[in-house]
Amino acid sequence: MKKFISKIIILLLSINILGLIISPNVDKKFLKCNQWWGTYKYTWIESFHNEQFDNVFIGSSRVHNMIDANLISNITKSRTINFGLGGSGIDDNFLVLKTILMNGNKIKNLYLQIDHITLDNSFDYPFNNYYWYCFHKAYTNKVLIERDGIIQYILFKYFPLTRYAYFSNFYPNLFLSFANNPIKKDTLNGYDPLLGRKNKLNKLSDKYLYKNFVINRVNQINSLCKQNKINFILFTSPIDIEAYSKTDISIPMNKIKSISSEQNITYWDFSNDSCCQKLQFFYDYHHLNKKGNDIFCRHLANKINETNNLKH
Known about the structure:
alpha/beta, 14 helices
């Protein structure tokens, strides 16, 4: 019996050693997986080194799918880029900024899209830790320990097969990607517009609140900006106000205004902006479609120009 147990232990250790050997290559392959643009965008963001940006936009899909960086660049005559990540939470946004700065890039203006969903942390999967475990960097590890706890971090870090098993529903594209498909090229500076109107819309919550750790992370982003002499702007993109008429979002939205006032951060609230409140401009309750984006981004670019003119 003891021999049998010893053999099982040796087998498990051997499997884990094999997992440790292959995991760096598996993680790199996952991040470069081109079956899903949202996956590859992490690697695309990380690929920028020692560059200068005038306007950097970060946030969730309400940046990724809504901010036309090329259009804003053309109107403002400045270099604008969309580093938004679909389905990302505030921790992801923080790590995106850290990645950009750690790679030696310089930013003049950072725009963080923030709203009731951000503060309530009410995404389906509010922290994409299954991505960040693939980066193997000290600053990503620090956030992973803060969010997941030291025990889970050690388990996923040093027993990688447990991570692949735990997050198996997020990895199907990894195995599809081992075919030699060409890497998707980005020609829109991170912008991935939605078309038309979604047929089936999810039910909205009755009330939204806010999480204190989200506030703390926003403050950390603000501190990073101050340290790197970056002009930090919070903004809220348009939402379908009619759809939200029976939903209470006042608590988190008032909290954003409070953060802005207390920390002396510029805040632009476009949530109920008249520029694109017609239903035809919305893909769903939270996202404009391409037609709506064209209108909103022109409005946003003009706001940027107005602000820059006031400074001069």
